[in-house]
Design brief:
12 helices, mainly alpha, 282 residues, globular
């Protein structure tokens, strides 16, 4: 259990680093193009992983579940990447913190998982930490015009991300991780090819290398999460998503010079406490 939580936390850090790179690219390229290139190059690395692990052919149920996840992954990625083009990194991450609540609820409704008192308190503490950050930002009056589009996009992303993670949990112990990664890379790339072509902006050589890195990093991060969800229940892993605030604060400061305020520090403390609480044995 402890190893699964640590693996998930590291995976979230890797994916937050990818989000930082995507935010920088969003100033120069359309959302659909960024998402397409992320999954197109991610498909290359997923194919390399499949060639090394030789997972075999997917089952009929595996095709249905993972195909459905591919659709959810497309909605999650495009909506969150769009939000990154409208909001600061820390703001988008803070607003995405509704997803662990959806994960725990959907895990209980669809998978029959148990939400005991300790996990419920951890989720509540993590949610309170998110409120410490988000409430101050919304109340500051800076969320007007296009920024509100980013807020709505974050909410959509949180719902579909939670749904995709619950489906991942449902199949993580049945389907090889390599198969899961193939579907969630190749499927979205195919679905995004036409929308990307309609808004295409020719990437510079440097940015093309950046997108290759984004594809590799995304594949590694999701591989780590898939392994974590194969070893622990969704409700126990869900609060780990709150650690993205810690990662986002670090990367936001290093890349964009954002300095966290008192509310962010208090919220981060609550989030870390909530995550650590899930590592204790029942």
């Amino acid at each position: 259990m402890r190893h699964a939580v640590l693996l998930a936390a590291a995976g979230e850090g890797v994916l937050t680093f990818m989000d930082m790179l995507v935010k920088g690219a969003s100033e120069r390229y359309p959302t659909f193009e960024i998402a397409f290139l992320r999954f197109a190059f991610g498909s290359v690395f997923a194919l390399m992983l499949a060639a090394a692990l030789r997972p075999g052919w997917p089952t009929r149920d595996g095709v249905i579940y993972n195909g459905t996840r591919s659709v959810l992954v497309v909605i999650t990625a495009t909506s969150f990447f769009f939000a990154l083009s409208r909001l600061p990194l820390a703001d988008a991450i803070a607003l995405s913190f509704l997803s662990p609540l959806f994960m725990a609820v959907l895990g209980a409704l669809l998978l029959g998982e148990t939400i005991d008192r300790r996990i419920g308190m951890a989720l509540a503490a993590g949610f309170a930490g998110m409120l410490c950050i988000a409430a101050g930002k919304v109340g500051a009056g800076g969320y007007a015009g296009e920024a509100w589009q980013g807020v709505l996009a974050c909410i959509v992303s949180a719902v579909t991300y939670a749904s995709a993670i619950v489906l991942l949990r449902a199949r993580a112990q049945r389907d090889p991780v390599a198969i899961i990664l193939l579907f969630q890379s190749i499927g979205p790339a195919l679905m995004l090819a036409l929308p990307a072509a309609l808004v295409w902006v020719e990437p510079t050589p440097a940015d093309l290398a950046l997108f290759v890195a984004v594809g590799a990093i995304g594949t590694i991060g999701h591989y780590m999460l898939a392994l974590a969800f194969a070893r622990a229940e969704a409700a126990r892993i869900a609060p780990v998503h709150y650690t993205t605030l810690v990662w986002g604060t670090l990367f936001g400061y290093l890349a964009f010079g954002d300095v966290p305020g008192l509310a962010t520090l208090i919220g981060a403390a609550l989030i870390v406490a909530a995550t650590l609480a899930t590592q204790r044995s029942s």
